[in-house]
Amino acid sequence: MGTGNALRTTHATEMNDQSSRSHSICQLNIREKASLKLHGKLSLIDLAGSERGADTKSHNRQRRMESSEINKSLLALKECFRALDSGGRGAHIPFRASKLTQVLKDSFVNTKARTVMIAAVSPCVSSADHTINTLRYADRVKEKQVSDDIADVSQVKFRPPGL
């Protein structure tokens, strides 16, 4: 995981000194030793934060393109959850819309999948809009999975150090 994080792209933005410019995914497959039959998969994903146009005014073209790609993949993920919300097990899940959702395909189509979302938010007043948006996003994940009984979900609350 250290190697993966070392290779992860980060740059300074107006919001953060070291803003991740990509998502980070670590997948562990648990297989039976003799048959190599897959018994489970653990996907740990650190999503890059979304950025609004107003947050990127002084960014160069490359940073704006990165922000656009991050936002597209987060929207694709949101659309997958929305499809599950509206159609349950038989719904068409648009997981092919981004590389992120393709990697997470099993989480959407496997009825025994379990999803846990940890939402990291800022206590700063200046970040209130982002915090509310993040909490709404996490709430959508929780509602989708609990109400449709597609998978169990655990809602984990993040408390920043010092609070």
3D structure, described in words:
This protein is α+β, with helices and mostly antiparallel strands and 163 residues long. It has one domain: Kinesin. It contains five helices and six strands. The chain has helices at 2-7, 61-87, 99-103, 105-109, 128-148; strands spanning 10-11, 19-20, 24-31, 38-46, 115-119, 153-157. It has a two-stranded antiparallel ribbon. It has a two-stranded antiparallel sheet with strand order 3-4. This is Kinesin motor domain-containing protein. Belongs to the TRAFAC class myosin-kinesin ATPase superfamily. Kinesin family.
What's the story with the biggest beta sheet?
A: 2 strands, antiparallel
Low-confidence stretches: 146-158
Shape: globular
Strands side by side in the biggest sheet: 1-2
| CATH H-level superfamily title | Kinesin motor domain
The CATH topology comes to: Kinesin
Specify the CATH class.
Answer: Alpha Beta
Q: Number of DSSP strands?
A: 6
Q: What would the average pLDDT be, to the nearest integer? A: 77
Number of domains: 1
Helical content band: 25-40%
Residue share in β-strands: 15-25%
Q: SS-based structural class? A: alpha+beta
CATH structural architecture? 3-Layer(aba) Sandwich
Task: Give the oligomer, counting copies of the same chain as homo and different chains as hetero.
Answer: single chain
Number of helices: 5
